[in-house]
Amino acid sequence: MNGLDWAALALVIIGGLNWGLVGAFGFDLVAAIFGDMSWLSRIIYILVGLAALYLIYFATKVSK
What we know:
- By secondary structure, the protein is mainly alpha-helical.
- It is 83% helix and 0% strand.
- Pfam families: DUF378 (PF04070).
């Protein structure tokens, strides 16, 4: 795995943990740290989404 793979994996893990907190406790950690829908929190959400798309590609590449 290269650096991009590890970065994508870390972002998706962070996103998954954040969604777990939202579902279990109604607490959005990204919003608590960076502000509710601030430009920085929006960038974090976009990066997590792009990382998830990349990992879909990565999973198809690895499964061959």
